[in-house]
Amino acid sequence: MNDDSEFTGVEKFAGVVRVDDGQLRSHVDGVVRETVEQTLNTLLDAEADALCGAKRYERSPERLDTRAGHYERQLQTKAGEVTLQVPRLRSLSFETQIIERYRRRESSVEEALIEMYLAGVSVRRVESITEALWGTRVSPSTVSELNQKIYGHIDAWRNRPITGEHPYVFLDGVWLKRSWGGEVRNLAVLVALAVRADGHREILGVVEGMKEDTESWLSFLRHLKQRGLQGARLVISDKCLGLVEALGEVYPEAAWQRCMVHWYRNVFTVVPRGRVKEVAAMLKAIHAQEDRPAAERKGQEVVAKLEAMKLSKAAAIVATWLRR
Q: In this structure, what DSSP letter does residue 164 have?
């Protein structure tokens, strides 16, 4: 008996055929990339033929133009980088939809990179994500260049001239976390939003204030005035003393009003969590009245109701507000 009979078919050929996954994947990727490249170049030729009114070397009375060679352009696709043979025409301008899609995609990639970086994603992580999504690893220098590009746009927007009148201006400071020399610190971002004379809202400015003190608000308001903010008749903000003092110096002619939302929050600090929703509806009812006398009457009713609910501290805050 032959010794080979002692082995099954699988055992006999075990190890004879081995598949290198890396080489197989590389081969498949190459085939896909080559197919994509051929398809795109075929589409480019078809677009050029349509513009010329005839195929290449075709004699036709309907021909509008002839070819003048081509130039190469690299395009990043999910299958990898491909080389486009973009046709040149002698007289007509060749604008392909493929290139337009590339431009839109290039822009979306830039926006995604910037959003990832500004969200705190490390440069190394950005490289890995871009390779997984688009098949191309973006270098740290590219990320840096994109950041410089967007920061230039941000600076231009922050220093743009303010035109027209803005009778109603809302000011507030938003506290955010920022990494500063390897240490995370709180940072106040000062924001100005206004309602234009035509009724449309507009964000006027955003700056880092470090803290909400008089000097920070004074610098921000002067910045807005230098850029052209005018016609401010009413400024709405929280009860930040530094802000109110700075406002009186830069825009003394503007009236000041405390922000309704901040006032609500002050009331809520002395209201049990389970009663906040009910009290909020009561406070909103005051501001929903048609005129000041009606609002004052509604406010007195709310004070009495809060007293009945044994929320005397909340009632005192509302009563103080009504006496102003």
A: S
Q: Per-residue pLDDT averaged across 283-293, rounded?
A: 91
| Amino acid identity, position 124 | R
CA 292 to chain centre: 40
| One-character DSSP codes across 79-111 | TEEEEEEEEEESSS----HHHHHHHHHHHHHHH
Mapped onto helix, strand or coil, the DSSP state of residue 19 is coil
Cα(237)–Cα(141) distance, rounded to whole angstroms?
Answer: 42
How far CA 111 is from CA of 81, 114, 150, 232, in Å, comes to: 20, 5, 9, 35
DSSP state string for 247-289: HHHH-TTSEEEE-HHHHHHHHHTTS-GGGHHHHHHHHHHHHTS
Which tokens belong to 207?
A: 């700056």
CA-to-CA dists, residue 48 to 57, 85, 150, angstroms: 12, 11, 36
Cα-to-chain-centroid distance, residue 179: 20
Instruction: Look up the pTM and report it.
Output: 0.57
Nearest partner of 169 among 130, 202, 134, 208, judged by Cα:
202
User: Whole-number mean pLDDT of the chain?
Assistant: 79
Bigger pLDDT: 41 vs 96: 41
187 token code pair: 């940072």
Q: How far apart are the C-alpha atoms of 244 and 236, rounded to whole Å?
A: 10
Eight-class DSSP state of 3: G
Q: CB of 318 within 8 A of CB of 267? A: yes
List, in order, residues 6 or more apart from 296 with CB less than 8 Å away: 322
CB contact at 8 A, 271 and 314: yes
What is the predicted pLDDT for the residue at 42? Answer: 80
Q: Which residue has the tokens 């805050």?
A: 317
According to DSSP, the residues that pair with 256 across neighbouring strands are 235
CA distance 318 to 221: 31
Mean pLDDT along residues 218-239: 92
